Amino acid sequence: MSDAPVKKFEGKDIDISFDSRLCIGVGECGKSAGELFVGGRDPWCAPDVVDKAEAREIVERCPSGALTYEDKSGEPEAAPAANEILVAYNGPYYLHGELEIEGAPKDMPGVRHRAALCRCGASKNKPFCDNSHVQAQFQDAGAVGEPGPGLAGKDGLLSVRVIPDGPLKLQGNVTIATGSGRKAWQGTGTALCRCGASKNKPFCDGSHREAGFKSD
Asked: Where is the Iron-binding zinc finger CDGSH type domain (predicted)?
């Protein structure tokens, strides 16, 4: 069995790829109706058992970018109409939008539109989440108390700078949703905590310095 992190499943109209470096087991694929993904089957992904439109829609449910597709008609995955970040209950930041994540490898195409980024400080795959928040017993419900200054528009690039030993610096239109799903903060730039120590989560308050947070 290949140890390559990316596995491609080829179909007649669409190829689907799975990147094990990004998967955090949310299960949007395996729990989808139909037989595109069936655990225990070899291969577990069969692109030709559903129509192409359904395959695209299911792949786009993957919140971490671990699943991607290559439509053989040449039509790429479209960027969402708006950039949004969900602050997951006791979990990561789920980003959905037109993303540019600093340092993301070129062979991780899924994170151009969907990504799960660590906010507990414990991931061994920073800036991406690797489920270390579970073992670290990270606790934060994902509440957001501030409304933000507002958006300059609804779309456009969301740049995510990964500050060494510091926060995630956002630049671009973005809406931040709480762990309960409420759309809360809206603005064009902010810094998000990724050390897990901020007293003003999800925003950075400089606690990474006192905590001695190291991003490597």
From this structure: 90-139, 177-214
